[in-house]
Write a structure and sequence with these properties.
The complex is a heterodimer of chains A (about 220) and B (about 210).
Chain A: H1 2-19, H2 27-43, H3 47-70, H4 72-79, H5 82-86, H6 93-122, H7 127-155, H8 162-188, H9 196-224
Chain B: E1 4-15, E2 18-29, E3 33-37, H1 44-51, E4 59-66, E5 76-79, H2 91-101, H3 108-115, H4 131-145, E6 149-153, H5 161-176, E7 180-184, E8 195-198
Parallel strand pairs in B: 3-7, 3-8, 5-6, 6-7
Antiparallel strand pairs in B: 1-2, 1-4
Helix pairs in contact in B: 2-4, 3-4
The chains are: A mainly alpha (about 220), B alpha/beta (about 210).
C-alpha cells in the first residue's frame, strides 16, 4: 500500500501544480478553443461544409493543442531538482514517470473535456454525435500525451527545446490522427464509436501506456547523470 | 533505530573523458559518518550521485544491507545543490507531498518544522524563500523521509550560524539513531568528528596535474 500512496501522491501533486497559479494547464484548452473560433472565419460560415470537415478538424486541433504543453512536461522538475528526488521515491522510476504523465494528463484534459463538446456544436456536428466524438477525442488525447511525452523526455536536455519536442512528437501523432479522424467519419455516418479506427486507437493507448514510461524513464535518467 | 551497512568496493568515477578517482573502498555501518573532502571538481558530488544511482560509476560495486531488506534508493536521502522547491506552491503542500512520496508520517511534519524554526514558512510560496530558508526546508524533507542513509552535498553552505549549529546537532542525532551519513564539506562541520575521506588520495596519478 505504501507504493500506492507514493504513486497517488505524484499524480495529485501534478494535478495541483498544473491547475494552480501559473500552472499552465489551460494553455492547450485556450489553443484548442482559439483554433475552433478561427475556423469559420478561415473557411467561411457554410454549415454543411463545417459539419463535413468538423470531425477531422477537431483531431487536427487536438494534436496541435497537445503539443503546446509538452515542452514544459519534464523541464521544470529537472531544473529544480524534483526529478532527483523522484528517482529516490522507492517506486520503479518508470512508474513514477507514469504517475507524473497521468497527473499532467488529468490536469490538462479536464478543461479540454469541457471545451470539446462546445467545439463540436460550434462545428455543426449533430448533437447526438457530440458525446461519442468527445469520448474518442479523450482516448486520442491520452495516446497523444503518452507518445508525445517520450519526445518531451528526449528533448528535455535542450533548453527551449520546444521545436525539437514538436519534431519528435508529430510523426508519432500521425497514426493517432488517422485512426481518430476515421472514427470521427464513422460516427458522422451513424455507425457509432466502436469501429475499426477506434479499436486501433485503443490499441495504441494500451501499447503506449506500457512502453512509453520505460522510454521516458530511460531518457530522463540520462538527464540526471 | 536503524541497522544497516553500506559498502563501496573499488569505485572508479569518470566525468566526461576525465578519470576522477579510482580504487575507492569504504565500509560503513550504522552510526558511521564520513566527511568527504577534495578540491572543486575532485568528484565529491559525482561520488554522492553515484551512490544515489543517478550516476553510473565507471567501475566498482555499491552494496547496501539492512533496513528491512529495502533497496538503497529506498533507504537514502539526498541533499544536493538543487532544493526541489516549487515557486508556485505553498511550503506546507510541498512538505506534505514529500512526506507521502517518501512514505513518512504526516503527523511528524509539525514537530520537524518546529524543530528547524520554520513553522512561519509553511503558508508561504516557494518563490519568496531565501537560499538559507530553502536549505532548511530541504533538511525538513530529509527528516520527514526518515531514512537511514543521508548523502549531503555541502549541507552547511547557505545556512547561518544558528542553522549550522542546529544541523550539526541533527547529524549527531541521526548517527546516534543508527543512521549513516556521507557529507561533502569544505569547512569543519559543527558536529562530532567524522571519519575523513579525502578524494585527492584516490586521484589516479597521471591525472594529478589536471586538478
Amino acid at each position: 500500500m505504501k507504493e500506492l500512496r507514493t504513486f497517488l501522491s505524484i499524480i495529485t501533486r501534478e494535478v495541483k501544480l498544473n491547475l494552480g497559479t501559473g500552472g499552465g494547464a489551460l494553455l492547450p484548452t485556450a489553443f484548442f478553443a482559439g483554433a475552433m473560433l478561427l475556423l469559420p472565419f478561415a473557411v467561411g460560415p457554410d454549415r454543411e461544409l463545417l459539419a463535413k470537415i468538423g470531425g477531422g478538424y477537431l483531431w487536427l486541433a487536438l494534436a496541435l493543442a497537445s503539443l503546446v504543453s509538452l515542452e514544459r512536461l519534464f523541464q521544470g522538475d529537472i531544473d529544480d531538482g524534483t526529478m532527483e528526488q523522484l528517482s529516490l521515491s522507492g517506486l520503479p522510476f518508470s512508474i513514477a514517470m507514469l504517475g507524473k504523465i497521468l497527473g499532467q494528463f488529468v490536469a490538462i484534459i479536464l478543461p479540454l473535456l469541457v471545451a470539446m463538446p462546445v467545439a463540436g456544436l460550434m462545428l455543426n456536428i449533430p448533437s447526438e454525435y457530440v458525446m461519442p466524438m468527445t469520448f474518442t477525442l479523450f482516448i486520442g488525447a491520452l495516446a497523444m500525451f503518452l507518445l508525445g511525452s517520450v519526445g518531451a523526455a528526449l528533448g528535455a536536455s535542450v533548453k527551449r527545446g520546444g521545436l525539437l519536442v514538436a519534431l519528435l512528437a508529430l510523426p508519432l501523432y500521425t497514426p493517432i490522427v488517422i485512426f481518430g479522424s476515421s472514427t470521427a467519419g464513422q460516427i458522422m455516418m451513424g455507425n457509432g464509436v466502436f469501429t475499426q479506427g477506434f479499436f486501433l486507437l485503443s490499441a495504441i493507448v494500451l501499447f503506449a501506456i506500457v512502453l512509453c514510461p520505460l522510454a521516458i524513464a530511460a531518457a530522463i535518467k540520462l538527464n540526471l547523470d | 533505530m536503524f541497522d544497516c551497512t553500506l559498502e563501496l568496493n573499488e569505485i572508479a568515477l569518470k566525468r566526461g573523458e576525465r578519470l576522477l578517482i579510482s580504487g575507492l573502498n569504504l565500509a560503513l555501518k550504522s552510526g558511521d559518518a564520513v566527511e568527504l573532502r577534495g578540491v572543486n571538481g575532485a568528484g565529491k558530488s559525482t561520488l554522492l550521485r553515484a551512490i544515489t544511482n543517478m550516476h553510473k560509476p565507471l567501475a566498482g560495486k555499491i552494496v547496501f544491507n539492512g533496513h528491512g531488506g529495502r533497496e538503497l534508493t529506498e533507504s537514502l536521502c539526498f541533499l544536493g545543490h538543487l532544493d526541489a522547491i516549487k515557486a508556485n506552491q505553498t511550503i506546507k503542500a510541498q512538505l506534505e507531498f514529500w512526506c507521502d512520496l517518501f512514505g513518512g508520517d504526516r503527523a511528524n511534519i509539525q514537530k520537524i518544522v518546529t524543530r528547524l524554526n520554520i513553522p512561519h514558512l509553511l503558508p508561504l510560496m516557494g518563490a519568496s524563500l531565501s537560499a538559507g530558508q530553502k536549505r532548511r526546508i530541504s533538511l525538513a524533507r530529509i527528516l520527514i523521509a526518515n531514512r537511514p542513509v543521508w548523502l549531503l552535498d555541502e549541507p552547511f553552505a547557505p545556512l547561518d550560524e544558528k542553522g549550522r549549529a542546529q544541523l550539526g546537532e541533527i547529524i549527531d542525532e541521526h548517527r546516534a539513531n543508527g543512521g549513516i551519513i556521507i557529507a561533502a564539506v569544505h569547512d569543519t562541520p559543527n558536529c562530532k568528528p567524522m571519519q575523513l575521506l579525502n578524494l585527492m588520495d584516490y586521484v589516479p596519478e597521471y591525472a594529478g596535474d589536471d586538478l
